[in-house]
Design a protein that fits this description.
51% of the residues lie in helices and 14% in strands. It is α+β, with helices and mostly antiparallel strands. The strands form three sheets. A four-stranded antiparallel β-sheet has the order 5-4-7-6, with helices on both faces. A two-stranded antiparallel sheet has the order 1-2. The chain has a two-stranded antiparallel sheet with strand order 3-8. The protein is elongated, with a radius of gyration of 37 Å. The two termini are 46 Å apart.
Length: 306
């Protein structure tokens, strides 16, 4: 026997592409057909379907392809309405539906019982989902999110709406120099920065003198501070300067300002809260509707040990 057409993972990938390919075929058909042709007339009604208003469009091996199936297919193609299609396009789509039905019938003959059961289960699950969605749309009216609910959520979750205060600080930093004299000079000039306000200009002057001192400025949350300076910054008040820190590098820190924690006003966050609460209201309404239905429905769970 020859090698399989699509060995191993390649075959799985090809099989997974089939649904997309089939839908793409229909899309191409619609894009390609823009001229009407002299073909037999086909129903154009796009109104509500009933058994007597769902005409048979084709028969395939004893099964029927109906108008409703074409309508469902077109719903998967955005911007396409059945009553605006040219005759040639409608005929092409019908031929594609016929082709798909023929493939489905051939597959039923090939598949074993387990595979057919799995497909039937997927069809049933999809049908249940569609019907459940429709029932919910017709019977569920979620309660609106009230101002009282917004206020209650706001009061109970103030941390969520608290803007943490930040610390604004400057540093003068120099790498350790192996030369003891240069290192001592750096310690002296950094200590002298305590009495200066213009740290950026001061750093520029020191670099012109050949001292590699870097000026840095930042504003961040206290918990975001590097571990090497977190303790020192935490101990400083506004306009206060630390001692020279001699660690992996030599640096000195000045706190420029600290902003306090502030709570955003409810007027600024009410829309945000409503967006959070709306899904909860929908969930409650859905649970209520499903409970009403379950009360009228006989349900029994079957033990798998039976």
């Amino acid at each position: 026997m020859g090698a399989p057409a699509f060995p191993g993972e390649n075959r799985k990938e090809m099989m997974a592409m089939i649904p997309r390919i089939l839908l793409l075929v229909f899309t191409v058909i619609l894009a390609a057909c823009d001229q009407a042709a002299d073909l037999p007339d086909m129903p154009r009604e796009n109104s509500a379907l009933t058994p007597d208003r769902d005409p048979v469009l084709a028969r395939v091996g004893g099964s029927e392809v109906r108008q409703s199936q074409m309508t469902v297919l077109l719903q998967r193609l955005p911007g396409t309405a059945i009553d605006t299609l040219e005759d040639e396009t409608r005929q092409k789509i019908l031929e594609s539906l016929v082709r798909m039905r023929a493939l489905a019938m051939a597959a039923e003959q090939q598949l074993d019982e387990e595979e057919r059961l799995l497909i039937d289960a997927r069809v049933q699950a999809f049908r249940d989902e569609l019907l459940a969605q429709k029932y919910v749309q017709l019977n569920m009216t979620p309660d609106p999110v009230t101002r009282a609910m917004v206020m209650d959520y706001y009061d109970k979750n103030l941390d969520e709406f608290t803007v943490k205060g930040k610390v604004h600080f400057q540093t003068l930093v120099a790498k350790k120099n192996p030369d003891q004299q240069i290192r001592q000079k750096i310690l002296q000039v950094l200590a002298a920065a305590t009495n200066r306000d213009d740290w950026k200009d001061y750093a520029d002057t020191l670099r012109e003198q050949g001292l590699a001192v870097e000026y840095r400025e930042a504003e961040m949350l206290p918990e975001q501070l590097p571990d090497t300076i977190k303790l020192q910054v935490g101990q400083l008040g506004k306009r206060e300067v630390s001692d020279v820190i001699y660690g992996k590098q030599i640096e000195i820190i000045k706190v420029i300002a600290r902003s306090e924690d502030r709570i955003r006003p409810i007027a600024a966050v009410s829309a945000e809260i409503r967006e959070k609460l709306a899904p909860m209201q929908l969930k409650k309404a859905l649970e209520a509707v499903s409970e009403q239905v379950l009360k009228k429905t006989q349900v029994s769970y079957v033990s798998q040990s039976e």
